[in-house]
Amino acid sequence: MRISDRQWYGQQSQRIQDKRLEMSKLQEQLASGKAVNRPSDDPTAFNRLESLRHRLSGLDTFDANSEVARRKLQTAETSMDEIFNVLGRTRELTLMGMNSTVSATNRQDIAQELGVLRDHFVQLSNTRFDNQYVFSGTATDTPPLDDTGNYQGGGAGSLVAIGDGAQVDLALNGGEIFNRDINTLTMLDDIISDLENNDLDSLNTRLSEIDLSEAQLSQSRSRIGAKMRRVEITTEVTADIRAQLSLESSKIGDADIASVISDLVAQEQSLQAAVKIAGRTMTPSLLDIL
């Protein structure tokens, strides 16, 4: 079958246009480093890459939540460690005051130092993170303890997603930490009062109260430590998942740069050949249009 000049021109023009489009696609892959930049490149691969991007974005959220959880729990641990120091020094001062050879005046001096420790305990109980009270449970705008040491915060219920199917409650109940078995602030006030009043009989009963206060603080610190460990383990698992998803995304979507360069060179040569062939048969005016 004879091909008309119009058909011939159309075929040559389309051939040149196709090669230019292919070169444009290869140049885009070379610039982006990606083999799949739009659905038309590979619909199946593009859909899978979109799914992987969504999963990776979710992991970013988990990582951000985990970092907030880690910092808050670390802040709580640091404050509780310092409260342990307060209670340790309180024990030392109480033992000093219990010594029968210590004068009433010296007990007044001990009471003054203990008063400073008492105020420091209040400051530590009011520790904040991101301008919210750490030990007030869900009532983060309210100081955890009132003037008598009674808990006035909220309970649990501040769950934060830190991984696939993993959550941690960041609402730390100061009532359990400071008041579950004994009111720590009231205990400190009572010891100060015993020292000021030179009441040795009452003072001699205070060591067991200090033991209770340390025990409830220790148990709460262990629970916080367990939450910290959960955050750490979940973060490690998330990192492993991220590595797997990133590897799959790279295998599907990343371009083989060496291969792209080779294909681009071949397409350039093919385009040049197509133009030469067309140039032998097309009129100069038509070549100008192309």
Give a verbal description of the structure:
- 71% of the residues lie in helices and 4% in strands.
- It is rod-shaped, with a radius of gyration of 37 Å.
- The strands form 2 sheets. A two-stranded antiparallel ribbon has the order 1-2.
- The protein contains 9 helices and 4 strands, in the order H-H-H-E-E-E-E-H-H-H-H-H-H.
- The protein folds into 2 domains: 197 residues, f41 fragment of flagellin, N-terminal domain (Up-down Bundle), CATH 1.20.1330; 35 residues.
- The longest helix has 56 residues.
- The C terminus is likely disordered.
- It has 290 residues and is mostly helical.
- A hairpin with a 2-residue loop joins strand 3 and strand 4.
List keywords for this structure.
mainly alpha, single chain, 290 residues, f41 fragment of flagellin, N-terminal domain, two-stranded antiparallel sheet, two-stranded antiparallel ribbon, 4 strands, 4% strand
Number of domain modules = 2
Tally of strands: 4
The name of the CATH architecture of the largest domain is Up-down Bundle
Low-confidence stretches: 286-290
Q: Identify the CATH homologous superfamily of the largest domain.
A: f41 fragment of flagellin, N-terminal domain
- Measured between the Cα atoms of the first and last residue, the distance is 27 Å
The profile of the biggest β sheet is: 2 strands, antiparallel
Mean pLDDT: 84
As for the CATH topology of the largest domain, it is f41 fragment of flagellin, N-terminal domain
